[in-house]
What we know:
It contains eight helices and eleven strands. The termini are far apart. Helix 1 (13-25) crosses helix 5, helix 6 packs across helix 7 (178-186) and helix 6 (159-169) crosses helix 8. The protein has helices spanning 13-25, 36-45, 62-72, 86-95, 107-122, 159-169, 178-186, 195-208, and strands at residues 5-9, 29-33, 50-54, 77-81, 99-102, 134-136, 139-142, 147-150, 153-155, 218-221, 225-228. The longest helix has 16 residues, at 107-122. The strands form three sheets. The protein has a five-stranded parallel sheet, sandwiched between helices. It is elongated, with a radius of gyration of 18 Å. By secondary structure, it is α/β, with parallel strands linked by helices. Strand 1 (5-9), helix 1 and strand 2 form a beta-alpha-beta unit.
Amino acid sequence: xxxxxxxxxxxxxxxxxxxxxxxKQMGFEPTVVGxxxxxxxxxxxxxxxxxxxxxxxxxxxxxxxxxxxxxxxxIPIILLTARKDEIDRILGLELGADDYVVKPFSPRELxxxxxxxxxRTQQTTAAPEGEQPISFGNxxxxxxxxxxxxxxxxxxxxxxxxxxxxxxxSNPHQVFNRDQLLGRVWGVAEFIDASTVTVHVRRLRExxxxxxxxxxxxxxxxxxxxxxxx
Length: 230
């Protein structure tokens, strides 16, 4: 089996060395770089299977790398941050990161996060065999090709964005709280932040709703969760 390639981006040599050592011990294939521009070059020339990314980098910072990486791919991203404020964590998730680890951290914990993120991103809530496409408004969800189109134009979704939309659309009018959505879409996984659901819902609205600030399909049920109205 081909080893999972992981790009580690951090400007502290000691962190790069320790993280690389632990990843190798667990059978991963790490590549380490110390600045944002080099990271962008590697992402383009030799895309990894997962990205571990420090937020505070010289030149291009981790948030900008996350933005650019997510615009071009669905690569799993774990952010390393010394900032403990929730707003900084939410910003990373908003930009498309899958998880974050606050410095200082245990290398063992980071490896556990890597395994958890890989499980979550590789697992899909596939539609049952023979399931038919679902249409609402101008949007069509095709479970066979895992593609979403609006007025014939393809809407690019990450793996989990598609899974979440399919789960909503195949259970119209049913209200789900965040824990239920985490269980049904992401599965039981350690370390996952419930804010992930809020962020994914917001990103879905931006992609499928005509007016994301006044959604017609993914409706917030205040104090409970969300429901889908076709």
